[in-house]
Amino acid sequence: MIAYQPSRVPAVAALALLALALAAGFLPVLRMGLEQGLSGLDPYVLRVLRFTLLQAGLSTILSLALGLPLARALARQSSFPGRAVLLRLLNLPLALPAIVVIIGIIEVYGARGWLGGLFDIYGLQGILLAHVFFNVPLAARLILADLERIPPESWKLSAQLGLSPLAIWRLVEWPAIRSGLAGAALLIFLLCASSFAVVLTLGGGPRATTLEVAIYQSLRADFDPPRAAMLALVQLALCATLALVAQAWGGLAAGWPALRLQPRRFDGRTALSRLLDGGVVLLALLLLVPPLLALIGAGLFHINFSALLLRALATSLGLGMASAALAFVIVWPLAVLAVRSGAWRKVASIAVLASWIVPPAALATGWFITLIAQAGMTGLAAFLVIAMNALMALPFVSRVLMPALAQSAEAHDRLCLSLGLEGWNRFRLVEFPVMKRAIGLSLVMALILSLGDLTAISLFGTQDFVTLPALIYRQMGSYRFDEAIGTAVVLSALVLAFSSLAERWSDQR
Amino acid sequence: MIRLEGVTFRYEDMQMRFDVAFPKGSFTAVIGPSGGGKSTLLNLIAGFEAPEQGRVLIGGADVTALPPHQRPVSMIFQDNNVFAHLDLWQNVALGVSPSLKLDMAQKARVEAALAEVGLGALMQRKPGEISGGERQRVGVARALVRDRPVLLLDEPFAALGPAMRKDMLELVTAMSQARDLTVVMVTHQPEDALAAARHTAYLENGRIVALRPTAELFAAEDLPGLHAYLGDWRSAKL
């Protein structure tokens, strides 16, 4: 049978662009790292590496320790008042920019916060708290998605056979989540090992810093490119290994797991299991709700639409739209081939992970070294931020576009072949109208990511080139916390508006 | 054997009401349009749904408030009758003991049941390694070892080819006759009902419109809904 063969030219161009960006990031780092050899791995680098692994490991364990029981409680108690609201609440930390959530956490647990003095949030404890805040909901959503894939007949069968809660766990639940659990753990570890905003704001100096933040400090504060290159090389080795292992293990779950129809369950009706599940849910609420309330409570009184804020808002939106468009233009031609060819599927699945394999700070180090050697970078800052944000959005964009494109290929390929419909005409007449929602969703997701980004803008930003997250960070740093809260509320409102749009589109698909 | 007395149940916009009895040893087919309440009827008997009003009696005892596993009922579904990560022997043994701890006599029963449905040689296979028809036989074997007097079949053969469907139907018929089971079978295939069921119920909009001897029901002239449901099949067959 003759299959539809989309043109390879745009895909090759997209790959070349990616290769250029990665080479410009990777090669200078490699050269500078090799020049130092093992002497570059001094006690400072090793200490930073150790702390990176320690905090990521502990964050992962704690997130799963609460996320797993939470997922099980939500799966088992399939209808209770407020369940739908709770599920939406679990989406919030995934959608909200890190810097915004950190403001909320400081407002609750900081020295002058509601629960101030409970513990020192600057250092390991604060970093763990923030990472757990982000990743308990993520773990719960991923595991819940696996639990909801259990066929309804299994629940009927369990009820008819009178399986005990322990037997249900052993025979039904554990087999369903086992394989996904390793992937979820790796994903959370990877996110925590390369987390930037949390460690930048809550890390306590050289004692509690991670590779990602140490690179930033070497580049922007200490002007020490060789050290940055050494750190970047270590970070790159760590993240590339983790990302490739996770990918081989069945794929990194980038994106929001969809809400499904909840199958009826017949277990968990006893008073004891209701009590246990209720306790777990309560614990999760105690973790998630106070920072969000604090943010709204304090922030609403401090919104001040200054000229600075409006300029940052405009910059954020402009950069966000540009990087969403760039991410789309790179993913689309790859995805079009990937849904029709196994070889291209492999290439695309690695290509879209570029920013996870070579994490942003490591990439930035190379770009920095290259461009300083060439011309200087003041004029290029905006382009570098757009490029980096686009790279970070690739996995999310492809995750949305791939299934929709696969469906369209399945449905339309033979008809399009017989009509000779291909290239731009096919996009205009078939894919675009059919996939309007998926395309919009992928663009909005990339936009949301870019709006919340603090990494790229910190690495390349300047005094006059400021986005909303960068403005928040600057206001925090200059003891204008009230203004920072106000800006954070503006940024969250913007992001939530876009993400509710995205959620509506993804529900209707 | 099975009696539903004034049982009402609401699903979305449909108000269902069942007043019906299935005598001991009877084999009844249930036909009717999709969404008419056929599966709900089985779910009410098995205890997967609780009636709003009315009582469900099995063998004279009121089971309305009993959870599914305490009812004298086995059920075979259209799909997913097996746990994919357990081998066939374990899947059937679950019908004897949820902890999979079996004594010698129980082990022998499991093996006999697997042999009876023709899976004796495949006991150590995983469900992924056998055909769809063989997977359904695992459900039948489990019903055998559970040895409950009521057997509910929810379109268990719908995904099988004609020859396989006929084999399975014969297996279930033989098994229910040998053990004097009371069987209620939901199906969309008039042939299945004609081959196996002495009586057939026609169900639409949450009511049992008619429950008659099978051949008589399919020939009935007084049921316009049934005419529409059967369509061309009727003129072709009768």
UniProtKB/TrEMBL annotation, chain A:
Cell location: Cell membrane
Stored Pfam families: BPD_transp_1
The keyword Lipid biosynthesis is annotated on this UniProt entry: no
Major localization class: membrane
Protein's membrane topology: Multi-pass membrane protein
Limits of the ABC transmembrane type-1 domain: 49-246, 313-502
The entry's keywords: Cell membrane, Membrane, Transmembrane, Transmembrane helix, Transport
A GO BP entry: transmembrane transport
SUPFAM superfamilies the UniProt entry points to: MetI-like (SSF161098)
GO cellular component, one term: plasma membrane
TM annotation in the entry: 49-68, 89-109, 121-144, 180-202, 228-259, 280-303, 309-335, 347-369, 375-397, 438-461, 484-502
Similarity comment: family membership: Belongs to the binding-protein-dependent transport system permease family.
Name of protein: Thiamine/thiamine pyrophosphate ABC transporter permease ThiP
Automatic annotation (TrEMBL), chain B:
Molecular function (Gene Ontology), one example: ATP hydrolysis activity
A single cellular component GO annotation: membrane
GO biological process: thiamine transmembrane transport
Domain ABC transporter residues, every copy: 2-230
SMART domains: AAA (SM00382)
Domain of life: Bacteria
Keyword Secreted belongs to the record: no
Keywords on record: ATP-binding, Cell inner membrane, Cell membrane, Membrane, Nucleotide-binding, Translocase, Transport
InterPro entries: AAA+_ATPase, ABC_SmlMolc_Importer, ABC_transporter-like_ATP-bd, ABC_transporter-like_CS, P-loop_NTPase, Thiamine_ABC_ThiQ
Presence of the UniProt keyword Chloroplast in the record: no
Entry similarity comment: Belongs to the ABC transporter superfamily.
Name this polypeptide is given: Thiamine ABC transporter ATP-binding protein
Protein's organism: Aestuariivirga litoralis
